[in-house]
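We now fix the convention by which a protein and its fold are recorded. The integers have meaning only within a learned vocabulary of local backbone shapes. The record below shows the convention in full.
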Amino acid sequence: MSAQTKLVLTFNMKRVIITAAELPESGELRVPFDAVLTPLARDEAERRGLTIREVAANEAGRVFPAEKIVALAADHGGFALKEQLKPLLEQLGLVPLDFGVHEEKAVDYPDMALQVAEAVVSGRAARGIVVDGAGIGSAMAANKVPGIRAALCYDKASARNSREHNNANVLTLGGRLLAAEAALEVAATWLTTPFAGGRHEKRVAKITGIEQRYTKRNP
């Protein structure tokens, strides 16, 4: 019996107790609100970078691979747009991993960008989206994390180019510079455009080479 199968069977009990043996290797695990994770399970989930989300009982037991997860965050200037992005992700069959903010209160955009960038480089999410007032500062902050290729996109053409040519893994948006409809179109284009590979692989590798050169100089 696989770990995932045992997990689903466990959820049929009145009191859900999840042990380390029942954890998936990666992605997001949805558990009932009253579930109990053993201390060892919590430690192991943290080690694997698993996202544990509490949901209604009928949603429990669903495991999402990292490829389906999009890390999402915003500062106060991007909060409203972030909330509109979540239904879009779900329509595309993706799962938002929301780092906040969860209300329109002032926060510093580098902190939000860092959470998304770390989720992507750790493998908890395949891609990320950060929204602040203009999108510029979040792109700068995210790109300081080795392994991140954050792109500030402002129309469908820039979104498509950043994915096809640059294999961007983080999108930043200006919540106060783009109308909501336009921003959602940009995000949808970015999320559905694959990396073209081919001649672009060599150029993306050179971006990584520059990053590695200066990371070695400044450990």
In short: The first strand starts at residue 17 and ends at 18.
